[in-house]
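Trying the structure run again after the queue cleared.
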Amino acid sequence: MVDGVSTSDEIEHGGVGGGFGLLDEKGRLSLPKPIRAALGVQPGSSIAYVILDHALLLIPQDEHLETLMRRGREALTEAGVSAQDVLDGLPDARNEVFIRAYGADFLVEVERLRLSMQAQ
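Done. Tokens:
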């Protein structure tokens, strides 16, 4: 670490790192070599992204995703929760997110519109 910033070697070997980049005219963002190495990605790799509270999270979709999926299955098994339990809980989780983001009145209005469209 130099002046509180991880070095390329530290990032490539599992350290925490970050940096800055610029979007080109097509909206592409280049990842520096140490970041690509740390993530285990190369040209052609598939990368998922999630926008979370105005932050961009990049998730490699190869070995890392497989490991995460395995860990998730193990955690669910240990907790005695099935995949169906998780799926069954998604509507309530979605409603909670909607209410936090848009307020309860918005969710009521969405449901009202859905029912009126269904009736047509």
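The two ends are 64 Å apart (CA to CA). Worth checking whether this holds up in the mutant runs.
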